[in-house]
């Protein structure tokens, strides 16, 4: 009986240590890459989901339309990709007028995500131990506008994809 208790205690300890090792916090590189992917996938899902006839919707005349916000987020991603590659770059806002319709806007967002993701993957992990720039700002920027887009959904009587019941 005593031997069984010892084996059980050792087994439980080993499982607990294994579980704890599995829950190590992400490295700075992992955290930035994961957060960039997370928020941009949510924005991309919204861009694909929002009705095309509402892409020009503005809550007031002084703010960007839904489509303009998507292009603005893409502009941030483009800046991040260029700055992340070490290019001497300034934030160059893409002109939403250059993207006609939902398909073109979704495509430019997808391209910006793909380019920035490639830059993130090619950035050595050690660089993130020195600086999180420009990525922390890029992630925060996209997340702020994600919240803005949620309001656009709600004001139009729509439920954002993230707030919909999940199918089982």
Description:
The longest helix is centred in the first third of the chain and has 22 residues, at 28-49. The N and C termini lie far apart (44 Å). The protein has a single domain (26-160), classed as dinb family like domain (Four Helix Bundle (Hemerythrin (Met), subunit A), Up-down Bundle). By secondary structure, it is mostly helical. The protein contains six helices and no strands. Helix content is 65%, strand content 0%.
Short description:
The chain is mainly alpha-helical and 168 residues long.
SSE arrangement:
Blueprint: H1 2-22, H2 28-49, H3 66-84, H4 101-122, H5 127-130, H6 135-155
Helix pairs in contact: 2-4, 2-6, 3-4, 3-6
Descriptive labels:
Four Helix Bundle (Hemerythrin (Met), subunit A), 168 residues, mainly alpha
CATH names the topology as: Four Helix Bundle (Hemerythrin (Met), subunit A)
What gross morphology would you assign? flat
Residues in β-strands, percent: under 5%
Per CATH, which architecture? Answer: Up-down Bundle
Query: First CA to last CA: what distance?
Result: 44 Å
What is the gyration radius calculated from CA atoms?
21 Å
CATH superfamily: dinb family like domain
User: How would you characterize the largest beta sheet?
Assistant: none
Order of helices and strands: HHHHHH
Overall number of strands: 0
Helix content: 55-70%
Poorly predicted segments: none
- Which CATH top level class fits? Mainly Alpha
Mean pLDDT, all residues: 91
Number of helices: 6
Protein structure class: mainly alpha
| Integer count of domains | 1
């Amino acid at each position: 009986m005593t031997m069984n208790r010892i084996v059980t205690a050792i087994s439980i300890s080993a499982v607990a240590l294994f579980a704890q090792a599995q829950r190590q916090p992400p490295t700075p590189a992992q955290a930035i890459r994961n957060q960039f992917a997370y928020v941009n996938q949510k924005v991309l899902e919204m861009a694909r989901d929002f009705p095309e006839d509402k892409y020009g919707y503005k809550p007031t005349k002084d703010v960007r339309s839904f489509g303009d916000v998507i292009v603005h987020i893409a502009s941030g991603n483009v800046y991040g990709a260029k700055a992340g590659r070490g290019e001497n770059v300034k934030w160059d806002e893409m002109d939403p007028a250059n993207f006609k319709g939902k398909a073109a806007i979704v495509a430019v967002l997808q391209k910006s995500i793909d380019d920035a993701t490639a830059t993130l993957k090619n950035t050595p992990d050690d660089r993130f131990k020195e600086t999180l720039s420009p990525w922390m700002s890029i992630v925060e920027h996209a997340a702020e506008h994600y919240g803005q887009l949620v309001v656009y959904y709600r004001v139009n009587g729509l439920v954002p994809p993230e707030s919909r019941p999940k199918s089982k």
